[in-house]
Amino acid sequence: MESSPSIMNGPADRLAIGRAAETGLLKKIFGTQLDGPVDLTLILIGACFFLPAILSEAGISNLAYCLVWTFAAIGLSAMWGYGGILSFGQTAFFGLAGYAYGIFTINLGESPAATWGGVLTGLVLCVVLAALLGYMIFYGGIKEVFIGIVTLSVTLVLETFMAQTAGPQWAIGSARLNGFNGMSAMPSLVLPSFAAEPILLEGTNFYFLVLAMLAGVYFITRKLLNSSFGLTLESIRENPHRAEMLGIDIRRYQLAIFVFGSTLGGLSGILYTVWGSYITPSSMGLTAAAMPIIWVATGGRKSLSGVIIATVAMLNLSQELAAYGSQYALVLMGLILLFVVMATPQGLIPTIKEKLGKLFGR
Amino acid sequence: MKQMKKFILGCVVTLPVSLSVLAADPIKLGLLEDASGNFALAVIPKIHATQLAVEEINAKGGVLGRPIKLIHYDTQSDNTKFQEFARRLIQTDKPDVIFGGYSSASREAIRPIMDKAKQLYFYNNQYEGGVCDSNTFATGAVPEQQFSTLVPWLMQKYGKKVYTIAADYNFGQISAEWVRQIVKENGGTMVGEEFIPLSVSQFGQTIQNIQKAKPDFVMTLLVGNVQSAYFEQQAAANLNLPMGSSIQVGQAYEHKRFKSPALKDMYVTTNYIEEVNSPASNDFKKRFKAKFPTEPYITQEAANAYNAVYLYKAAVEKAKSADMIAVRKALETGDICTDGPSGKVCIDPKSHHATHTMYLAHVQGDHTIEFPKTWNDIKPYWLGNAGCNLPVKADYSQYTPSSPPKK
Amino acid sequence: MTLLATAYSYLYQFGDSFAYLTLSSLGLAIIFGMMGVINLAHGEFVMCGAYVTILSAKAGLPLPLAMLVGAVSAAIAGAILERLIVRHLYNRLFDSIVATWAVSLITQQAMLIFAGPSIEGLSTPFHSFEFGEYSFSTYRALLPFFSIAVLAALYGLFFKTNYGIYARATIQNARMARCLGLRTSRIYTMTFALGAGLAGLAGAIYAPTISAVPTMGSSFIVPAFVTVVTGGANVLQGIFPAAGFLGLIQSALSASYGQLAGQIGLLLTVIVIIRMLPQGLGSLFNRK
Would you say residue B4 lies in a domain? Predict the structure, then answer.
């Protein structure tokens, strides 16, 4: 039981709430509204809408950039933390969706229909390919760490293949894949408006878009994982044999969460491509593939809010270290990661939450 | 809460204004280069050369009386860091010019960001050519300068049968295209062409293919530490063929890192390497080694980076201001030149590239270098001939011989 | 003569590929295959072996001795790593990825800072020999035989010595082994050190053939993982057929369609193999 809306203040009241929570009284009072973490995280995300009043344009742009990666992290948390599926493939779908968006919009223009069509195309492509790959993996009986190896191999094949598509024959319509140098100059997302010009979703507008998407994705994921689907998934992760013997077709559940998680990786890819107007095969390399895993391990693989915070924090940390740490930046980064993983086996954010919880007497 | 917000808002508004008053003095040069990661080996000399140039200029009174402030972010050989720090520079530090980028991918990652912000950007590296961008000035050597000098010379000396091995991505493929074209123009034959993915370090099969094809010389367009294993392996197999390259030696000083005779009979056309023996070069080396005594090698790109700072200085002085549009117009007049360690380097207005002196470097059996030939004042003619005319027509693209600008 | 030369050339390429896959993967086979630790710092053990070999050879040691020193130093580094970090992560697969990744990051950057961006390498020992229209490096032609010798030695170690019995017992069922009086923590350290030492040996062997930079180990990681995973259940018995099969595919594709086909073919083969033989891979982790 995590936090509750603070209609009361003061430690005595908190203690009372805590005791009430233990007896389930609070749940009876507030009904299903008290879905613990949902409220707090959504409130936090809502509060972020007001950040442009405090932070500079550069700060908002950077925060938007960090938030773009959270979808891949949430997807991996759902797959690994809840489903027990270690997928190195987030970056594969990241790249695929990004390229799909680029190809679609370079060919079809920058109207609202074209750009959002690009987003949709990217997501649909991810769903289809994840379903195919997932079918091969789960219905083929591949288990545990070999899922990681297979997804890593897929990612590397894509990277190796895409890196050599530099020639002019590698073009889809008028969009050249352009190999290792990457594809660029794709348009930003636009919203239709009554004015002559459609609303360009750049800068602060882009920030609001990402934030809104994050709220939506978080809500959906939370609901999904709290539902019976999520509980079944966890039971599969705990003991697949037992789940099978109870009559659950574990492959279907694993496939479903794999498609869900991978598509979220694709969403990150689309938003990254939109943000930088650029996508390259090195987004699908070994280093890039390891990043979501590091964020989820730090954030606590079962804590969605932890994963979001960890992703933003680690990206920011990496930037600040690179800007001010000179040649020691990477060493410091490694040391911090090492410390986090050794000292906080549950993940940094859940450990902090736990300690804070103890502090407030719950 | 409202008071707090007002206070913060007030600070946020006045702080940049007051800071900008203080900052009106220095000219800000943003530097995006890799001091760590895969490319550090080739890029660290560039960073040092830039620092040397800035220090020298500031010691002599700066540009238009203003000191240059160098703002360097370590991009860690990571394209996403390039994007992040490009944005950070443009939005927070607001530089007057940005220098940077080693791999073409990193340049292409930030060019859209530079173009969106209309930011003046210098790419000071040898590359595959073709960038016709109003905001970008590419001061490194390009294929028409390197291959049109090297390949005919090698064909005359060794024979007309050529085998190319190239890194399997844009730079390698486009360079190989250039080689193919020039070989054909000079009446030669390509007896083989191989493209090697960047992660390959074992070249057994390639060496055998070369032996089977029996070329007169091999054009090696290999990129990165991993692929450089080729040289040791071909020497171990006693391939014994002369090699030509536009990229080896000048960036990653393989002749110092591999034991002889791995690089024996490698011929490279470069606009500068440490071994160039001219008064300007020796003076430059002296100053460089005085500031950076432990530098393993002064590379081609170090000289480019050094020249670029002086070229920028000349342009600002001609424009009499650091305003980006004025400086760009000054660079497009055609009289912006600098006399650097490699000789005279001038900016070509049409294509925003630079004319260079090309030195033919020959690595001998004991890995010392001799210079059998030097070509002066080689212009970057291809883009201009192909239709890129930036003072007249704005453009933001990269072209290749097989997809030139639309006429 | 030409037919014979061409046939030998194919055999040579196959042997070359086989040796590279075998030597890269042996260390990881022990650490990942037997102990279940995903060691992303594998490349750094390779780099350690290579650097120490080069520095020892330059200091005057004869090359075989320098290589031994390189391998041993990697083993010592592995023992230290195991004691400090890895032993806390035995049942935490996910976290072992992050921890070894962090170690890899720290090591690469530290090497760059303290040893510079590169060091001068060694020449490949022995010379070359000719066969028909081709010439081959003698050293590389001998590598396949060397890798088989190492495999045989490893087999002997695990099946014919006391240590081997203790190690296999510990890995199969640590609790039981402890009940029977084995010092399991020491055995873990020794086995991890053995894996690290084998990785260092790969670095030592290949040091005279590739460029010596801090990131040199990263090109060994993917071939290593790919071979170990294909090798399957019984790691020691699986490496030989895995390296053979993958080596065959890679050398055949490279010869016919170029290096790109070889690389992609290798990765696709892994996917196919895992898909086709998932049962045999189940008992890879004997320690759970």
Answer: no
Question: Residue C212's domain is classified under what CATH number?
Answer: 1.10.3470
Whether residue B230 contacts residue B344, with contact meaning beta carbons closer than 8 Å, is answered with no
Please count the other Cβ atoms lying within 10 Å of the Cβ belonging to residue B17: 8
Q: Tell me the pLDDT tens digit for each residue of B102-158.
A: 999 899 999 999 998 999 999 999 999 999 999 999 999 999 999 999 999 999 999
CA C180, C182, C184, C187 dihedral sign is negative
Determine the Cα angle at B144 with ends B140 and B146, to 5°: 65
Domain count for chain C: 1
Could you tell me what percent of chain C has a pLDDT over 90? Answer: 43
Q: Where are the alpha helices (DSSP H) in chain A?
A: 11-22, 25-30, 37-48, 57-68, 70-76, 90-108, 112-138, 145-163, 204-226, 228-238, 240-245, 250-276, 286-299, 304-324, 329-343, 348-359
Residues 6+ apart with CB under 8 A from A338: C85, C99, C102, C103, C106
Q: In sequence order, what are the residues at sequence separation of 6 or more whose Cβ sits closer than 8 angstroms to the Cβ of residue A352?
A: none
Minimal Cβ distance to A282: which of B79, B112, B398: B79
Q: Do B348 and B284 belong to one domain? A: yes
Residue B232 in contact with partner chain C when CB distance is under 8 A:
yes
**Tens digits of residue pLDDT in C218-235:** 889 989 988 888 887 567
C219 touches chain B (CB under 8 A): yes
Q: What angle do CA B321, B326, B328 make, to 5 degrees?
A: 120
Both B122 and B205 in one domain: the answer is no
Give the range of the structural domain holding residue B195, as residue numbers without chain letter.
Answer: 144-270
pLDDT tens string B329-351: 999 998 999 999 999 999 999 99
A163·B75 Cβ contact <8 A: no
pTM of the model: 0.86
First to last CA, chain A: 9
In a domain, C169, yes or no: yes
Q: Is B407 among the domain residues?
A: no
**Residue pairs between chains B and C whose CB atoms are closer than 8 Å:** 120
